[in-house]
């Protein structure tokens, strides 16, 4: 074979890249309307997808053009500035470059020896961020994860290995007392999945009641740990949330830490969403207490505006990481102590260059840009709160973070339903918010400023459609 049909002609490759460049620039600068996803036509989507039978090679230029058009039609435009929904970010421009960059070099981050630069670039980012959190890293460890779920999962595994040293060899079955862990009913549901997946079972989850502001009740935490001990259980892990998913509540981290220290229990902070604010010196004191955690989860793919997926896990306990994940192979060289070999320290084995998109973003924006990133969203959150109140809406959560949960007397009195209001907002295709429930029987609307491109104009637009629904 003289020619290799697997490699495109260079001229074709150049044309495709030029086409991709237009796709990127068009969508980055104009994601367009959010779209109306109340009645998704599953059949139409499947028919479109199934026309690609992978028998004859496709014309890649046509394919790119076609998929670009359909992505717009059939994807919620979470990067659109009117999207005030879940924690889905608009991505930084440099992170888009980083994704292509990582793909072409395709460094294998399982082992330092294969990807020394990439590993060191990731560690540099992670240490920068650990420093922002105030976490001591002399004997610490940090790595990227697929997301908050994997980081929380990792934290539970570390706590098990630390608290029950025999567990690593003999497994949970060898434990004489059943381990239990503590969260609140506001905690992320990843802990349900983790309890099922690590072999603890859902019954190992203890839900600490919350106070009137939905923060973990410290007295109750202490009482529950004591009650569990006398009933023969083994408390080993508490997760406080910094920025709950529904209401953006920050648990009293310092107080939870004191209970954990007194009880000899692992103190985890799930800061998947709000942890990102640590890059702003003006805001990081809201996370005070996080620096004493045994482990911390932060998602770079939330506040820090990089594409999916990029979670981060931080712990000051490198030795526990080695105990929980250490493994030897016959084909890899021994590891010098000063380097990180991710296959020996984390859940993943083969691993992509996830950290580059954060590295590029931190570099692109710098300290002033990162401070602006955080300040803008806080400012717009305050602006939305004040506009809602001025228009007679009631706030039902109490947090400085830009998550606003709200309702209206016309809704609580039954003259309008939440669902009608939401329908009317979605029908505009200009704004996207959601419904959540903070307390039993209390549903409310929820808007979150998650996009660094959102401006007062989009907040005004949301207000306009909300007010119109009450007419
Ligand atoms: C988003 C989130 C998670 C889950 O993180 P993924 O990145 O989706 O895996 C966990 N905890 C909290 C508080 C979150 O906001």
Descriptors for this entry?
four-stranded antiparallel β-sheet, globular, 471 residues, alpha/beta, binds pyridoxal-5'-phosphate
Can you describe this structure?
The protein has 471 residues and is α/β, with parallel strands linked by helices. Helix content is 42%, strand content 13%. A seven-stranded mixed sheet has the order 1-7-6-5-4-2-3, with helices on both faces. A hairpin with a 7-residue loop joins β8 (394-395) and β9. α9 runs parallel beside α10 (253-263). The termini are far apart. The protein binds pyridoxal-5'-phosphate. Residues 87, 147-149, 152, 188, 190, 241, 245, 270, 272-273, 299, 311 line the site of pyridoxal-5'-phosphate.
Bound molecules: pyridoxal-5'-phosphate
Broad structural category:
alpha/beta
Tell me, briefly, the overall form.
globular
Q: What string, H for helix and E for strand, traces the elements in order?
A: HHHHHEHHEHEHEHEEEHHEEHHEEH
Low-confidence stretches: none
Number of strands: 11
Fraction in beta strands:
5-15%
* Average pLDDT number: 96
Largest sheet: 7 strands, mixed
Strand order of the largest sheet: 1-7-6-5-4-2-3
Number of discrete helical segments: 15
- Percentage of residues assigned to helices: 40-55%
Distance between the termini: 73 Å
**Radius of gyration over C-alpha positions, nearest whole angstrom:** 24 Å
């Amino acid at each position: 074979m003289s020619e290799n049909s697997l490699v495109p002609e260079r001229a074709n490759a150049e044309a495709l890249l030029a086409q991709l460049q237009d796709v990127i620039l068009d969508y980055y600068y104009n994601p367009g309307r959010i779209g109306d996803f109340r009645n998704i036509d599953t059949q139409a989507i499947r028919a479109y997808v199934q026309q690609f039978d992978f028998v004859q090679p496709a014309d890649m230029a046509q394919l790119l053009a076609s998929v670009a058009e359909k992505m717009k039609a059939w994807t919620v435009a979470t990067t659109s500035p009117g999207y005030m929904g879940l924690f889905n970010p608009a991505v930084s421009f440099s992170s888009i470059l980083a994704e292509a960059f990582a793909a072409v070099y395709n460094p294998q981050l399982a082992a330092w020896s294969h990807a020394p630069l990439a590993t060191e670039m990731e560690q540099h980012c992670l240490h920068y961020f650990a420093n922002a959190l105030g976490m001591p890293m002399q004997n610490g460890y940090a790595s990227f994860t697929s997301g908050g779920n994997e980081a929380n999962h990792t934290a539970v595994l570390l706590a098990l290995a630390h608290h029950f040293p025999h567990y690593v060899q003999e497994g949970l079955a060898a434990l004489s007392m059943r381990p239990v862990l503590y969260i609140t009913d506001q905690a992320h549901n990843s802990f349900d999945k983790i309890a099922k997946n690590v072999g603890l079972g859902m019954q190992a989850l203890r839900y600490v009641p919350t106070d009137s502001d939905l923060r973990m009740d410290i007295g109750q935490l202490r009482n529950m740990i004591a009650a569990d001990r006398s009933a023969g259980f083994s408390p080993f892990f508490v997760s406080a949330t910094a920025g709950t998913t529904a209401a953006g509540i920050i648990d009293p981290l310092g107080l939870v830490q004191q209970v954990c220290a007194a009880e000899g229990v692992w103190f985890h902070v799930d800061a998947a969403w709000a942890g990102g604010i640590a890059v702003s010196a003006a805001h990081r004191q809201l996370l005070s207490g996080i620096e004493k955690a045994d482990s911390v989860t932060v998602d770079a793919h939330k506040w820090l505006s990089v594409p999916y997926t990029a979670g981060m896990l931080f712990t000051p306990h490198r030795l526990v990481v080695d105990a929980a994940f250490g493994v030897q192979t016959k084909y890899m060289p021994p590891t010098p102590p000063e380097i990180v070999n991710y296959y020996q320290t984390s859940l993943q084995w083969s691993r992509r260059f996830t950290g580059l998109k954060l590295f590029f973003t931190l570099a692109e924006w710098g300290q002033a840009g990162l401070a602006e990133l955080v300040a803008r969203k806080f400012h717009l959150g305050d602006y939305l709160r004040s506009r809602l109140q001025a228009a007679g809406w009631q706030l039902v959560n109490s947090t400085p973070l830009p998550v606003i949960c709200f309702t209206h007397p016309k809704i609580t009195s039954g003259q309008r339903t939440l669902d009608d209001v939401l329908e009317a907002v979605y029908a505009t295709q200009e704004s996207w918010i959601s419904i959540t429930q903070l307390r039993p029987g209390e549903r409310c609307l929820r808007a979150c400023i998650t996009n660094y491109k959102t401006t007062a104009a989009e907040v005004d637009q949301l207000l306009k459609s909300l007010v119109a629904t009450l007419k």
